[in-house]
Amino acid sequence: MLNTVVQTSNTLVQKHLEWIYRITTTKPAAVFVACCLAFLLSCLSIARIHFEADIFKLFPQRGPLALFLDTMKWTGSAGNAYFLLEGDKEQLITEAETFAGKLRGLSVDGTPAFSNVKYRVFDLAEAQSFTTFMGYAVTRPQLFVAPEDAPRYRQFLGPEAVAASLRKATTELAAPGSLVDIIAVDPLYLRELILPRLKKASQALDLDTTSPYFISRDGKVLIIIAEPSRPVTDIAFARKLVAAINQAREGAPVKISVAGAHLSAVTDEAILKENVIVGVLSSLVIVLGLFYVAYRRFLPTLLIPLILVYGVVLALGTGGLVFPTISIISFAFTSLIIGLGTDYSVHLYDRFHFERSLGASSEEALRLATVDTGHALFTAAMTTAFPFLSLVVSEVKILSELGLLVGLGVIFSLYATYFFLPPLLLFMEKRFPLKAYKPLPTFGIGFFWTAGRRHWRTTIALSFGAVLCLLVSATGTSFESELKNLQPRYSEAFLAQEKVEQHLSVSRKQLIVAVEGNDLADVLSRGSRVDAMARELLQRGELASFSSIGQVINGADDQNAVIAELRAGLGHARLDADLNGALSRQGFAAEPFGQYIRGLAGLAEAEPLPVREGIDRLSDSPFRGIVERHLIRSESGYHLLSYLNYNGPEFRQQPFLTALHNDVPGARATSVDLVSGQLLDSVRRSFMLALIVGSLLVLSLLVSHFNSPRGIFYSLFPVTSGAIAMLGLMALTGMRLNFMNVMVLVTIFGMGSDYGLHVAHRVRGCAEEELKGRFVQSGRAVLLSGLTTIAGFGSLAFTDYGALASIGWATNFGVAATALFTLAGLPAFMYYLNTIRKRPPAG
């Protein structure tokens, strides 16, 4: 049965390749016209593709990632631009005033570039609303004073404290630029118990709560937060906005750096395009140089770029029919095709030259190259393409895109080689014939054949020993969960974000809890349970801090605690008479403070107030950002957000999430760690599916190509060893697996099996005296294929884009190791399996 399958598949492939040989040699013009038509149709398809720069859209939009994206959309942080001013504190404040004015004056296409620019806790233009809110808040301590500050509030109302406050007010009123209105609504400075709480909750950053500006506690960095007037998806607007920002900060006396989605979209796109273009051109030059040095033929060398361009365009055009939107990161597949697509020209021309050097005619040499070596190329291309194509079913969009584009690119590059190279070789034979085809350089490959057979025991032992050592090392491979490390490492947005984390971050990490529903009272009630859990974590040292609406506006329990404290101290006091007397002694008229005095005098009979009332008051004040950050109303209902700040593993997230789901059913949580875990699970599932499907397809192709287990072993041993070596070398060099380079394992498995396959295909069924020559010929092609692949992928290794660089280094490790095990290891295994095991026993 197996022999029938092998014979049938080989016959079908042979007939297909015979047809290709016949049509390309007898009707080259028709082939050329058909290829041009396919090329033009692909170009039209490419023109319809939208290229996406948002990295988050490459992953499944559910679970923690969905909430992560929702919070950015709800709070507006996804689209904000963050300007970091660095310098002397006083100079920072002066320059912030100037630069903020420039930002407000910026325009793009005749419209304001920013709809809002903030660098202060509240704008001076909102002084009246600030005064109104503080007048309300200071006389309602049950809503706005923390329970632990209630004793201090009571102390502020003691006779000595009242007198000291009024003397301070007298002094400040005499100073120029005094805030008369705020003193009029709060002459006792009760706001000092409320303002720090409000300032702390107004932003997600660790700001100096004593300063009205968004300035770090160390005074070295001031941040301006601006909201662009158009979304980041408008890339034309983003480019013009970045240009306008760069012009606005020219000549600034302090250093100004920018972070934000608009800048990232523009700079990341520019960096990626530059990296890919430079990488493609440099690797193409290296590949063409290697090909020309090896074969010394000018026209076949020039044909390689055309083959590669054709394969890339057809792959991208066909991919556009499946994915109307493609990530710009997927452009990296062009570098992969340079490395993979050149292999077919190398093997086909190497076989043609080899046969011509042995005296075969042009037609016979070309037929052997197209049909015989072409058969190995067909199987090799399919074993490379199918593992990639199996990634199409991945739920991770970037893996799905790259799988489809690379798989199609490999197949189209193979057929471009089939269709373009044979007619060119016949044309060269007629117009530019060589006087003689000299044997090609062996590059020392004959040494591997001789040494492997002479020292086969040592070679086999060393091969297995190396694999075992690298396998042990591979157990130390870890996974990179920080998404930011996959971005351009030296872009301004990346460096600015690091400065934010260094100077302004409350903690290294943050977990966000969302309590949602249509009934605000129920949402707030369930949110209070989250607050209670957060307080316990804070007491145990698992959290650095947390932020919620409940830390600004007291719930029912906290209000009762504050009221109880005030009643205990004020129950028998005649506060109104005492305050009137104190005002009179300090020279103040009592009438303007009547409402203030009545509010304080009534605290002894105070009752809890609706939380909704406090929220409405905050929303109408300069502190509306607190509400906007913690409580959002959308078409689906209310979303109450709590921010839990932590530094590392001391926060045991899984037990907390379990308790959260039990105590607050329906609550959602997200963090960078949870998002990374979700993406890791998605990538793991996609990888395992692709590995299983790809392995089965590769094994099926190898079984259909070879009629003995030895041929399959010769194909799989080098690639298995190469994959283990890749993981082992990554661990030894401190590299980590990530969401991108994990696909390299699929790449190595599909592509690396080609090396052993080509060698096994050439040496099977030949006479003993021909073995070395055939091994050298196929080994030379394998060596050049490996070098061209490393050149293609190597260009990625030196990019600034962490995701692409990791793909480049991982692939280079795997390809180099696979080629080494093929050339240095297979001769010993072939000698043992084909010769030693077949010897009759002695005696």
UniProtKB/TrEMBL annotation:
Keyword Membrane: yes
Domain SSD: 301-427
Any one GO CC term of the record: plasma membrane
Keyword Transcription: no
One matching Pfam family: MMPL
Bilayer-spanning residue ranges: 29-51, 276-295, 302-322, 328-346, 376-393, 405-428, 460-479, 686-704, 711-733, 739-760, 781-801, 813-833
Alphabetic keyword roster: Cell membrane, Membrane, Transmembrane, Transmembrane helix
Membrane topology according to the record: Multi-pass membrane protein
Family annotation (InterPro entries): MMPL_dom, Mycobact_MmpL, SSD
Domain of life: Bacteria
Localization annotation: Cell membrane
Designated name of the protein: RND transporter
